[in-house]
Amino acid sequence: MRIIIVGGGKVGHTLAEQLIEEGHEITIIDRSEVVIQRSMDELDALTIQGSGVSAGTLTEAGVQQADIVIAVTISDEINMLCSLLSKRLGAQYTISRIRDPEYMKSLSFLKKELWIDYAINPERNTALEISRILRYPFSGGVETFARGQVEMMDFRLGPEDGLIGIRLQDLEKRRPDLPRVLYCLVERDHEALIPKGDFVFEEQDRVFVASDIKTITSYFRALGKNTERVHKVMIMGGGRIAYYLTQMLLEMKVQVSIIEINPEQARTLSEAFPSANIILGDGTDRELLVSEDIGTYDAFITLTGRDEENIMAGLSARQNHVRKAIVKSNRDHYADMLTALGIDSILSPRQVTANTILRAVRTRMNAQIAQAVQRMYRLMDGQAEALEFIVHKDDPFVHKPLKNLRFRPNALLGVIVRGSQVHVPGGNSMLEPEDRVIVITLDSGVTALGEVIL
After folding, report:
1. What is the pTM of this model?
2. CB within 8 A of 291, min separation 6: which ones?
3. What are the Cα distances from residue 113, in Å, to 54, 87, 117, 171?
4. What confidence tens digit (pLDDT) does each residue in 359-399 have?
5. ∠ CA 122-380-356 to the nearest 5 degrees?
6. Which one of 332, 351, 378, 406 has the largest count of C-beta atoms within 10 Å of its C-beta?
């Protein structure tokens, strides 16, 4: 597909890398000479220095033949106007990053009037991700499939879990007390592995499991994990992510405290959320955290714009026995170090945004394909992907036992959702029309179920 990305900053650059890897033809537009030079040096993409709201610049970029125009500059207004202008000039589809809460109140109207096909709010998406994680404080993250019927989450394997040294094929016999879930993926020594029957669990494995909500909750309860929801949360940094997250948490009847160093921003938050506890101060101040009884909180979430301060505050919270610390950081290379120090939930709004847009691009690309991806998540920094497909009556693999089918190497057909029932399939299981199927693969770029079942 021919894709124009307006805004070559962190999000645009990350998105361009992933789209180029999948074989798309990319053009990047940015005002900054420095950004354009970086794109020229590091990416196999056409680059144009100019404005995304200039008809001349867009025309030079080939907007008339563009399948998708993605506007991800730092300005909501420029992104929206770029979408309108691109559509007027002939672009087939537009994606616009819109972040301001004020615009979100009238988003449907704006999309219609400005010809925006898909709007993404990275701060709200990040807040949604955090709210999911808070449901299971022991997990690094939660993803949902099949309209919320299936959840996939990961946890770090320890001696207390009773799985170490057990082969996967022996697990049902050795641990009959465990509800049956799908073991989707394992991260070991920074490598992604799809576990087969002879796979043996080891301490410190990061294990991804999936099933319906009731079963997966029972599974973690059987492992001895705390499946109680959090009741008291402290947030450091009162920006847009904190705004959206506070809205969500208050609706969930969670007690929220926000530490904000800027007096004006603290006042704005106090007016917006009178039932929240707004604290004016520095969240990296250990004495302030102690004075606020940080140890009594179920979770501590760091959301400032400074990665190093987020990390230090998160570590301080863990030292004060907060059972869940969630750190916002766009520096992926910190992840392993932070995990070793007890912080296993690290969120990157940049990556959340790129992954969400990538899903939208794939959906658009496969709009006319019956077996198209319905939902996609990139796992372990892109080493693996979890994909959702719908089975159709004309598919050649319908009504055939899975043991008689040939599957793509490095791929696992994981969960089958049939109506309201969620199944972890065996060799005798068969796919039926309208089934929703969850696939795990170590190969990027898979766009159809027929690429998995060969």
Report:
1. 0.72
2. none
3. 19, 12, 11, 56
4. 788 777 655 454 567 777 778 877 888 888 888 888 899 99
5. 25
6. 351
